[in-house]
Design brief:
alpha+beta, 60s Ribosomal Protein L30, Chain: A, 2 domains, six-stranded mixed β-sheet, globular
Length: about 150
């Protein structure tokens, strides 16, 4: 009988500690959806970004101007600038800065645009740029030329 009571006491104590841990660290466990009107509304079943603890996961952004809903595809530089402006708006909505971006993924429809995209992208990270990869894909949403997603950590 003493062993059963001790086991029940131990289970209750562990449960209490787990509850205290999660209640004090609930913002680490509960995802927060980030949304801003300064970036395009999602065109599918996804969020602009999700914050979990001190990590922000920004969905892939394309060059939709949030004010007009239009895409300026007159040049790869204009497309890239709009993508980066959308990302910056989302990052700032989450209370972060572009310097908090730790990882970026760049998707290009044509790797021949790498240099031009890289030049614009680099202006948003003047020092200590994030880790990243750049890949060519066969097609992107709305037939754009560039899509970028980022992860930021504060």
């Amino acid at each position: 009988m003493k062993k059963i009571l001790f086991t029940l006491f131990l289970l209750a104590a562990v449960s209490g500690l787990i509850f205290l841990y999660y209640s004090k660290n609930k913002n680490m466990e509960v995802p927060k959806i980030i949304f801003t009107e300064k970036a395009p509304k999602p065109i599918g079943p996804y969020s602009q970004a999700v914050m979990r603890g001190n990590a922000l996961f920004v969905s892939g952004q394309i060059a939709i101007n949030p004010a007009t809903g239009q895409i300026d595809s007159s040049s790869i530089e204009n497309e890239t600038k709009q993508v980066m402006e959308n990302i910056q708006a989302i990052v700032e909505q989450a209370g972060m800065k572009m310097s908090d971006v730790a990882k970026a993924s760049i998707f290009l429809s044509d790797m021949n645009n790498f240099g031009k995209v890289n030049k614009v992208y680099g202006t948003y990270f003047p020092s200590n740029p994030p880790a990243r990869e750049t890949v060519q894909v066969s097609v992107l949403p709305k037939k754009v030329n560039v899509e970028i997603s980022v992860i930021a950590i504060k």
